[in-house]
Write a structure and sequence with these properties.
The complex is a heterodimer of chains A (about 280) and B (about 300). Chain A has a domain at about 85-280: MetI-like fold (Orthogonal Bundle), CATH 1.10.3720.10. Chain A contains 15 helices and no strands. Chain A has helices spanning about 1-40, 45-50, 65-70, 75-100, 110-120, 125-140, 145-150, 160-170, 175-180, 185-195, 200-215, 220-225, 230-235, 235-240, 245-280. In chain A, helix 1 packs across helix 15 and helix 5 (about 110-120) runs antiparallel to helix 8. Chain A starts with a helix and ends with a helix. With about 300 residues, chain B is mainly α. Chain B has one domain (about 50-290): Orthogonal Bundle (MetI-like fold), CATH 1.10.3720.10. In chain B, about 70% of the residues lie in helices and about 0% in strands. The longest helix of chain B is centred in the N-terminal third of the chain and has 35 residues, at about 5-40. In chain B, about 40% of the residues are buried. Classes of the chains: A mainly alpha (about 280), B mainly alpha (about 300). Chains A and B meet through helix 1, helix 4, helix 5, helix 6 and helix 11 of A and helix 1, helix 4, helix 5, helix 6 and helix 8 of B.
């Protein structure tokens, strides 16, 4: 009996070890670029060109970061990005729950077909509509402003509408129905009953919108003309043209680009994962 | 059957709430798609009025070598990146589903690159792929392989991008992982009672159960591939020898660098039809392999 138990334990332990070995091996290629970026960012120039490569920089040159920030108008770009991010989140948080309410809390015939249509529009590539949108926004005098990037968020984004709609479907219909019997208007029910219930889902959507705006490259590239208006995504291209050989400074700059996403990720990691599970909610 | 006043009120309420999206849909999607069909039949530099030239843009496109190059490049990218992306995503999801205590650490590591901006990834990988000083060729050198020129070589540039985007495979993986966790345990237990092996369970239970998520992933991956732009724009500018001049990049250049808005619109319409065609084919074939759980 005792031997049997030991064998079982051994098998269990072996399983755990093999499993972990696989997991660690898979994680290495995902981590390596970050490690290599950080390691290069802290090197002096000669150490970036030695072979075999130096893994741990010696000496550690923190000054690279200062130099990278001073090369470009970093804070202007940061301020512009913050402006764009904040207002696109405001737009999303106003429009998306509103539309999602109509797709979940009100019973009307075309509702589910409309949801399918909204989802179908997600697969239309941006380059398809890019030229006419540029012309429209040009006629409105919005070129070289953030309006073309912010205003559309006030009309709802398919994926976020879908996400909130999935969340709303988990709210028992008895809740709005009870309020209706009490004579509350639909707007009141939306604002007073439903919205307070879906704070976590709104947080998820805000987070996704943050990432979408922060990561947007092509939109700003098309609509913004002056460097003083650039967000970080465009402004950082300066580094690409400035640092031809100074890979250490270029990687210091890259680290600066990555850090905000790292911070946001670690603060909101749980929300992010919850949000993804939300998309999987079955009807 | 006439509608009751209650039903009419519900329709009005429903329309009221979805109206922002309907307006946005008309302004930012339907109108631009129709307008771009009109522009595609004109010569138009973006200002002034478009000049009607019929199908001239399309007949010129057929003779434009760079158009065919960009189309070839994106189809090459699509054919390899989409299936590989799915395979890697599913593989990662299965691995992330391993039951160990510190699993959230591995999940975090694998998922994080997926939310990184493309322009940040572009910076990092320019350095990783550097033929002389980059770490990839240095590591290959350790095992005696003389690494290629990666994004600097016309032969390797497209495979380099296809490999690079797998760094973000944690994105689809985490969605597939969520789907894996939704597969009812009873199905596996029942199969185990019947003596089913791992492969049988994966093939007959796991894959059918997550097939709706797979369909969604594949459709979005195809449309995402057609929009592939940031990385080639930043890293290679379409080179070397136009080997990374992908469709959207060439479309962008025509529209915003050469001010050939009409010509770019013709490209946009071809892209629209192509994407729609592929999506329809995928939907049609999916009827054979997709499985919707009842209830």
């Amino acid at each position: 009996m005792k031997i049997l138990l030991n064998r079982k334990t051994a098998k269990f332990l072996k399983g755990q070890v093999v499993t972990r070995a696989i997991l660690v091996a898979v994680c290495i290629p995902f981590l390596l670029p970050f490690f290599w970026m950080l390691s290069t960012a802290l090197k002096n120039l000669p150490q970036t060109v030695t072979f075999p490569p130096v893994w741990i920089p010696d000496p550690i040159v923190w000054d690279n970061f200062r130099e990278a920030i001073q090369t470009i108008p970093f804070f202007t770009y940061f301020k512009n990005t913050a402006f764009y991010v904040v207002f696109s989140i405001v737009g999303t948080l106003i429009s998306c729950p509103f539309v999602a309410y109509g797709l979940s809390m009100v019973r009307w015939p075309a509702r589910d077909s409309l949801l399918l249509l909204i989802l179908a529009t997600m697969m239309i590539p941006f380059p398809v509509t890019m030229v006419p949108l540029f012309i429209i926004f040009g006629k409105l005098g919005w070129i070289n402003t953030y309006a073309p990037l912010i205003v559309p968020t006030f009309f709802g984004t398919p994926f976020f509408i879908f996400l909130l709609r999935q969340f709303f479907m988990t709210i028992p219909p008895a809740l709005p129905d009870a309020a209706r019997i009490d004579g509350a208007s639909e707007l009141t029910i939306f604002a007073r009953v439903i919205l307070p219930l879906c704070k976590p889902a709104l947080g998820v959507v805000a987070l996704f919108q943050f990432l979408a705006s922060w990561n947007n490259f092509m939109g700003p590239l098309i609509y913004l003309m002056e460097e003083s208006k650039y967000p970080l995504s465009l402004g950082l291209q300066d580094y690409r043209s400035t640092y031809f050989v100074e890979w250490n400074l270029f990687m210091a700059a890259s680290t600066i680009v990555v850090v905000p996403t790292v911070i946001i990720f670690f603060i909101f990691q749980r929300r992010l994962i919850e949000g993804i599970h939300l998309t999987g909610v079955k009807e | 059957m006439p509608l009751t006043s209650r039903q009419r009120k519900n329709i009005r309420t429903g329309l009221f709430f979805v109206s922002p999206w309907l307006i946005g849909f008309a302004l930012f999607l339907v109108y631009p798609i129709i307008a771009s069909l009109y522009y595609s039949m004109t010569r138009f530099v973006g200002i002034g009025s478009p000049k009607w030239i019929g199908f001239w843009n399309y007949s010129f496109l057929i003779k434009d070598e760079l158009f065919w190059t960009s189309l070839y490049n994106i189809m090459y990218y699509l054919v390899f990146a989409v299936p590989l992306g799915f395979a890697v995503g599913l593989g990662l999801a299965l691995i992330m589903n391993f039951k160990v205590k510190e699993k959230s650490i591995y999940r975090t590591i694998i998922y994080f690159p997926a939310i990184l901006p493309m322009f940040a990834s572009a910076f990092i990988w320019l350095w990783m792929f550097n033929p002389q000083l980059g770490i990839i060729n240095a590591l290959l050198g350790y095992v005696g392989i003389d690494g290629p020129g990666w994004i600097g070589s016309p032969t390797w540039s497209k495979p380099s991008f296809i490999l690079l985007v797998q760094w973000g495979a944690g994105g689809p993986a985490i969605i597939l992982l969520a789907a894996l966790q939704d597969v009812p345990r009873e199905l596996y237990e029942a199969a185990e009672l019947d003596g089913a092996g791992q492969w049988y369970k994966f093939r007959r239970i796991t894959l059918p159960s997550i097939s709706p998520v797979i369909l969604f992933h594949v459709i979005m991956a195809v449309s995402g591939a057609f929009q592939f732009f940031d990385l080639p724009y930043i890293m290679t500018e379409g080179g070397p020898a136009n080997s990374t001049l992908f469709y959207s990049l060439y479309l962008y250049r025509n529209a915003f660098q050469y001010s050939k808005m009409g010509y770019a619109s013709a490209m946009a319409w071809i892209l629209f039809m192509l994407n729609l065609g592929i999506a329809i084919i995928i939907f049609k074939t999916s009827l054979r392999w997709i499985y919707y759980r009842a209830g």
